[in-house]
Amino acid sequence: MFKLMLLEWKKLKRHSVIGEVIIYWLILMFMPMFYIKMIMPAFGHSYATAIELNLFIQLGFILFGGSLINQVFIEEYKNKTISLSFRYPISRKKLFMAKVLFISLFVFLVTMISFILTGLTTYLLDQVFPIINGQPTGSDITTYFSSMIIGSLIVPLIGFIPLFYFGIWKRETVPTVICSIATMQLPNFSSFLNLKPEFVIAVLCILGALSIYLSIKTAESVGEI
């Protein structure tokens, strides 16, 4: 399985993907302070509220997950290169599972690093340009690391929502991206739906898990060229 995942990495347009990740990191690193200063000062009430804000900001990597679905699945279908993979002496279910695990691990790692970079940047900028009230407490630090782990797990899962229908069934890039953007934004608009953000995120995680299940379960039939 590890060799199959490594093969997926080698097949990526690595320079393009790395450049995309760096752009995400640079934007998200400064996003909390920008948001607090220019849009919603209420999140600067304390580090606890700033941590809550950061979790929603890191959902931006859901879009990166959609980008990987495009390269790992859709482009291979469109370029017919996936037919070579189907000739390997392994089941298509195992092949699809390797692709899913590769995307999951990749998005998990870049999200985890983003949490660390964003947390450090927010703290250092706040020391120079005080915007957030008070200083982070031990409880805030513990909460942040818990948020980092949970966020890094749910982002890849939610990112798989477009995989089955748009990625494997329809094999369409634009709808996949649009779906990723919509799911990324839904928790932010939960209040308009009179729903708690945690509930919306839980539902999105279930939909992501269902999409993964259907993708692997039907790999032998839906996976035809």
Task: Describe this protein's structure.
- Helices cover 77% and strands 0% of the residues.
- Helix 2 packs across helix 6.
- With 225 residues, the chain is an all-alpha fold.
- It has helices at 2-11, 14-39, 47-57, 61-78, 82-85, 92-128, 138-159, 163-169, 173-185, 197-217, 219-222.
- The protein contains eleven helices and no strands.
What is the averaged pLDDT score?
91
- Total beta strands: 0
Class of secondary structure makeup: mainly alpha
Low-confidence stretches: none
Main pleated-sheet profile: none
- What is Rg? 19 Å
Short description:
77% of the residues lie in helices and 0% in strands. With 225 residues, the chain is mainly alpha-helical.
